Amino acid sequence: GAVVSQHPSRVICKSGTSVKIECRSLDFQATTMFWYRQFPKQSLMLMATSNEGSKATYEQGVEKDKFLINHASLTLSTLTVTSAHPEDSSFYICSARADLETQYFGPGTRLLVL
Amino acid sequence: GNSVTQMEGPVTLSEEAFLTINCTYTATGYPSLFWYVQYPGEGLQLLLKATKADDKGSNKGFEATYRKETTSFHLEKGSVQVSDSAVYFCALSVPGANSKLTFGKGITLSVRP
User: Which of the residue ranges A38-42, A66-70, A104-108 would you say has the lowest mean pLDDT?
Assistant: First the structure.
């Protein structure tokens, strides 16, 4: 299947700092990428849909000023968690849509805010 | 709205046992159905999919058949291995420009030697 990478795989930061997570589609172009958040032993919660060259669409209850998304090219989307707090600690997963039916997922980024 | 319901877990099996994980769905339109697998500490991997009624998706010994009459997409494997231990998610999407995946809660499978 297609390959999607995320960087970093793990990050620890102090409360109040900002953290940027990159999501790249390595062998295909993706006009649409998705950002999910996963709490321990729970399913994935869709945070936002990232469209290349336009503003992201956020799900209800997700603060767009806190979770900044930039989809600057057909192979790269970034999620920046601004002024991170301990409650933002989570596993963040991106996916890239390869066609109308199929998404390929990145390996995830574990964020720990101290 | 769209929703996916998975059987409650966790599931623990002995190696070479038969596996069935139930999944039912409700959807508007004609959804595509998916099974994703998540190994510990990793993201999700697409295991198999089916895009229309009566299609059978298969991969790595796993199978699931799209049953429109029962709105189900149960995952089966004839003989599980320890390496199959993971979390399994059933999901659907209604194809289109704004299609999103709707996930079930996931179920943890543990296979003991």
Answer: A38-42
Indicate yes or no: CB of B105 within 8 angstroms of CB of A42.
yes
pLDDT score for A39? 83
- A9-18 confidence digits (pLDDT tens): 999 999 999 9
Q: Which residues of A touch B45 (CB under 8 A)?
A: 1, 105
Q: From its phi and psi, is residue A72 left (phi > 0), alpha (psi between -120 and 50) or beta?
A: alpha
pLDDT per residue as tens digits for the range B40-62: 878 889 999 999 999 999 999 99
Residue B98 banded pLDDT, cuts 50, 70, 90: low
Query: What 8-state DSSP symbol labels residue A59?
Result: P
Does residue B108 sit at the A interface (CB-CB below 8 Å)? yes
Chain A residues contacting B via beta carbons under 8 Å: 1, 4, 6, 34, 41-44, 46, 49, 93, 95, 97, 100-108, 110
- The DSSP annotation for B57-100 comes to EEETTEEEE-BTTTTB--EEESS--GGG-EEEEEEEE--STT--
In this predicted structure, the answer to whether residue A41 has a pLDDT above a threshold of 80 is no
- In 3D space, the residue among A60, A56, A113, A61 whose CA is nearest the CA of residue A83 turns out to be A113
CA–CA dist B14, B19 (Å, integer):
10
Label residue B39 exposed, middle or buried (CB < 10 Å: 0-12, 13-18, 19+): middle
Beta bridge partners of B94: none
